[in-house]
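Homework-ish question, so no full write-ups if that breaks the rules, but can someone show me the predicted structure for this set?
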Amino acid sequence: MHPQITVDTARRLSHLDVLDREVAEITAVPIGTIRKWRTGARRGARNARRADCPRCTGRPLEEPAYSYLLGLYLGDGWLTLGRKDVFALNIACCDDWPGLLAAAKSAMAAVMPMSKVFSVQRIGMTEVKSTSKHWPCLFPQHGPGRKHTRKIELADWQREIVERYPGDFARGLFHSDGYRGANRVRRNWGGGDHWYEYPRYLFTNNSTDILWLCGQTLDQLEVAWRFSKPNTISVARREAVARLDEFVGPKY
Ligand SMILES: [Zn+2]
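A: Not a homework solution, just the prediction itself:
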């Protein structure tokens, strides 16, 4: 056993990149012990990295950002497994909407602050990415196959966050798989056809589970909606569109 002050001195020297051999000389401790203390300290540093995962460590999660990111993930996101058990969270962003790309980046950074966010340019779109071993902790929906071919269910803790921040979740869904645009309708009166334009929202997804998650959230926000096609939710009533504009709004 060595006195704590010797251990501390050796670690401090190692931290300053002093060679193990020199630290051993200065502290009169065998070099093997110095090495063990140094790598032990590294292990400590790795633990600090693990401390980034809110699920594994109990670190508070940035819930509004997470609710938004979950919406984006369910719409246009996926996890890929890379080298050394590191996962990448990927969100596909259309290049027509630079504001949404920036919003996706900042949500990722807020949820997993120690992971760097970067992007890869594809044709007409950009993939925003962040790598961590712990993305599956945050998106337990990850699994083999496309999302619409498997059951998508929120974990209890995810449902609680979505219920606390339904507007952020809806914004994430509509920013990924949604659309806000003009609907043209024809009405015949006074002996002629008249065209009217009004804004509406559409949310299209091939997963029935994700469609229902969207519908439940719209219910919670008191936004009237209906299925306009089997894979499409439509929000078209004037007051419903105005209400959803408070949370989503046009793409930008
Ligand atoms: Zn974790």
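Now go work out the reasoning yourself. Hint: The chain has a mean pLDDT of 90.
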